[in-house]
Amino acid sequence: MSDPVVNRGFFGKMMGSSFYKKFILPGLISQSVVIAGGYGTGRELVEYFGNFGSLGGILGMVLVTTVLWAIVYAVSFEFARTFKVYDYRSFFKELIGPGWMLYEVCYIILLLIILGVVGATSGSVFKQAFGLPPLVGAGLFLAGVATLTFFGSYVIEVALSWWSFVLYAVFLIFLFVGLSKVGGQISANLASGDIREGWALGGFKYAFYNLATLSAVLFALRSIETRKEAFISGAMASILTILPGFFLYLVLMGFYPGILEVELPTYTILAQIAPWLLPIFLVVLFGTMIETAAGFIHSVNERLNSWMVDRKGKELSNAGRGLVGGAMALIGLGVASFGLIGLIARGYGTISWAFFLFHGVALFTIGLYKMNKKKPGSAA
Questions:
Q1: Cα dist. 259→2, 177, 213, 264 in Å?
Q2: Which of 143, 197, 265, 294 could pair with 42 in a Cys bridge, judged by C-beta atoms 3.0 to 4.6 Å apart?
Q3: Which residue segments constitute the domains of the chain, with CATH numbers given?
Q4: Which of 6-20, 220-234, 304-318 has the highest mean pLDDT?
Q5: What is the pLDDT of residues 187-200, one digit of tens each?
Q6: What pLDDT, on a 0 to 100 scale, did the predictor assign at position 378?
Q7: Backbone φ, ψ for residue 86 (5° rounding)
């Protein structure tokens, strides 16, 4: 598929630059895909960090999640570069052979959970922001996902990367407002040194269920040419992905420990400290939910495309991509009926162990062995 002619001006030049494609784009895509299912509502941060104490959450986020992401991303990017595997089917077939099908089962289950999480939120976003029926939000969610997946890699790459700048701006405003309104309480709660047992495990689970985002990032790694670039890009991806969550967590600590029992912490806090920012945040979050769903579904489309090229010698059509996107988004809205807190607490927490085994353990045993065995190419 040919790329649209949008590569003009300052933004076009920046997106076309080698530095941006190698070191910034993978992290922005990762952050865009993680945010709606990983911390957009604030419930995820409460579940895997806040529940382990104000300071315990910081330790889990910085010392466990961020470090694990950096290490696993770096080695994963190098594995993808070494074997030229840029969709999850090819990546995990190369990594664990026939066992890749077990990874795919886990990945599809996680995808449905994530679609359920964003589906559970999509209808309420438009209701809270504009007083419209939840079906309006759900319908726009379906349409947005189908449209993005229809246009394929380049449009998704542009949408996810540039929407990240909008997200960063909104989260920074949220942080500044939070510091100005409850900065004293944030400092007091962090200074209390509240650390509860399980903070490391919470950070571990959060890290590994979110590492499934690798599958949505693989298509953007083709510009990485050396081992050094892969490692730097992996570390940058970890930092770019965690920062908005860290900003949000700091504000949440201004309302600790009461915020632990709230289903939608971000909405609750904004309604109290910055009601003027709430509609903007909800619209941005809604757009992010579309991007999160589209990013994950695009990885499925890339997997299907790889299979079709291998078996039939032709690529998946745009119409086929859009159809898959719309169908999976619709299924996700059905999964949403299980409820947001249950999906986040039980669904994410359980599936993280599968990704630890099939991705983490496999990568640092079989993956390192295969990379070491392969004759070095451009490994500078």
A1: 48, 17, 27, 9
A2: 265
A3: 19-371 (1.20.1740.10)
A4: 220-234
A5: 999 999 899 999 99
A6: 46
A7: -120, 20
3-state helix/strand/coil string of the chain: CCCCCCCCHHHHHHHHCHHHHHHHHHHHHHHHHHHHHHCCCCHHHHHHCHHHCHHHHHHHHHHHHHHHHHHHHHHHHHHHHHHCCCCHHHHHHHHHHHHHHHHHHHHHHHHHHHHHHHHHHHHHHHHHHHCCCHHHHHHHHHHHHHHHHHHCHHHHHHHHHHHHHHHHHHHHHHHHHHHHHHHHHHHHHHHCCCCCCCHHHHHHHHHHHHHHHHHHHHHHCCCCCCHHHHHHHHHHHHHHHHHHHHHHHHHHHHHCCHHHHCCCHHHHHHHHHCCCCHHHHHHHHHHHHHHHHHHHHHHHHHHHHHHHHHHHCCCCCHHHHHHHHHHHHHHHHHHHHHCHHHHHHHHHHHHHHHHHHHHHHHHHHHHHHHHHHCCCCCCC
* Contacting residues for 236 by C-beta, under 8 A, at least 6 apart: 23, 24, 26, 27
Tokens 């070491």 map to which residue?
Answer: 372
Q: Is the pLDDT of residue 24 over 80?
A: yes
Cα R_g (the chain), whole angstroms: 20
How far CA 367 is from CA of 3, 73, 207, 234, in Å, comes to: 33, 13, 19, 16
Report the b/e string of 204-224 with b at 16+ CB within 10 A: bbbbbbbbbbbbbbbbbbebb
Q: Is the pLDDT of residue 120 over 60?
A: yes
Among the listed residues 93, 65, 73, 82, the one whose alpha carbon sits nearest the alpha carbon of residue 30: 73
CB contact burial 152-163 (16+ within 10 A = b; e otherwise)? bbebbbbbbbeb
Instruction: Quote the CA–CA distance of 55 and 263 in Å, as a whole number.
Output: 21
Single pTM value for the model: 0.81
d(CA 51, CA 253): 11
Contact 93, 306 (CB under 8 A): no
Per residue in 10-21, pLDDT tens?
445 555 678 989
